[in-house]
Structure formats: structure tokens, C-alpha cells
What we know:
Blueprint: E1 2-9, E2 13-19, E3 32-39, E4 44-52, E5 59-68, E6 82-84, E7 89-97, E8 100-110, E9 116-119, E10 123-124, E11 129-135, E12 148-155, E13 158-166, E14 173-179, E15 199-206, E16 213-221, E17 230-232, E18 238-241
Parallel strand pairs: 1-8, 5-6, 10-16
Antiparallel strand pairs: 2-5, 3-4, 3-7, 4-5, 7-8, 9-11, 11-14, 12-13, 12-15, 13-14, 15-16, 17-18
Amino acid sequence: GGSGGASIIVGERLAITVTDADGDADPLAPGTVSVTGSNQATADRETVSLTETGNATGVYTGRLPTLSVGVSGAGAQQDGTLLVSPGDAVSLQYDDQVPFLSVSTLLTVVDGTAGSIAVDPPYVPPGGLVRVVLNDTDLNRDPLVAEAAFCFLFALGDTEIVELAETGPDTGVFTASVPSSPGAGPTPGVLDNAAAGVLIRAAYTDGEPVPGTSRFGEGYFGVVGALTIRAADFRGRVGLTL
């Protein structure tokens, strides 16, 4: 039998689960089963080995990465990665032995979405923490775990490579806070040259929908001034403070 209607993004890692109570040949040790992923449009066919989650659980899990056919050097049968393009239909099939029956599901490949990166808040006191927020659902490869992403952070000649942590499983939002210093550095893990008025720039490479697109977010070192407005009557007495 088969089912369909779900979709995947180019480059997404598929989290596969098979539940088969009578598929465990040895109740004293975790077993394995196989699932076949295929894409008729690219003629690619991959066999994925799923491992039982424990002794005699009957639940098997595994991963199948996908990759855009447009990536240079991509593509070989049984290399562990399924080649896909937007609009393709990907089939996943499990052959149950007892009873002998094939179970399958059909997934539609869709375009990725444009991501964004920001310095948030955009004004950082010199010596304060620079918070970076990256929003890109395409980087959410595995919906079961909180993943990581990377970006570059620049300030007046200093460059830091920053690892961002996903805010939770399947959110597609990644954050990191980097300390800053007014000194010239270089100080590993610290964004130096943090003087008032210095531009902060965050950058990363967005893989979808157009591979290799650079995206930027900007902020500045400095303290935002406060504005107080008072209304006074003609006798000079304060009537209102905002």
C-alpha cells in the first residue's frame, strides 16, 4: 500500500521510522531493517539501514539525506544521498516480511525558502554581547533534534566564525551571543574593535532557493540615548512626563 501528500525541501535530511512488531529476529539485541528511497526523475535509488531503538521494541529509525542535483560533483547510486530537484516525487518503501507486503509513502520535493540573518538588538554597548539570529527553515535538516548553523561576524577588520544553536527541534531559528571587546585583539571567540559607531555585520551563505546566496544583517556598537519630554504650565511647574 502507499500514502502521499507530504513534502520535503531540497537538501532536507529525512527522518525515517518503521514500526514492525514481528520484524525483530533477535529479541535480545537491537535489530535492523532496510528502507529504499528512490527518485524516478533522477534515477537515483538509495537503501537505508534502520536500527531498532532497543531490544525487542519493534521500532526502527534512520536518516536519508537529500541533495540538489545542481550541486557540483553530486550524484552516484548507493552513495547514501538521494538526488532531488523541486517538483520531483520521492518514494520510500519498506518490504514487510511477515506478512509479505510492501508499504510505501510518496513525498513531493518543493523549493527551499529564503533565509534571513540579523543582529538583534541592532545597537550593542561596546563590550556587550552581540546577539545574532538566523532564520532559515532549510537549515532545519532533522526535525527530531535541535541542530547547529554557522555564520561570520565582522567588526572593523575582526572576523569571527560563529556557531549558532537551533532554539529547539524543528524551529529553523538559530541564535548565538558573542562577547565583544573595545580592544584591537585578535581575541578568539570575541568580536574586537567594539567602539561606538563601529558597524557590526553578520553574514551566512543561504543554500536555497538559489544556492550560494549571501545574506547579511547589520548593527552598530553604541548606546542609544534616551529622550524625555515634559509638559510644563506657564508657572513652570511640571505637568507631564513621558
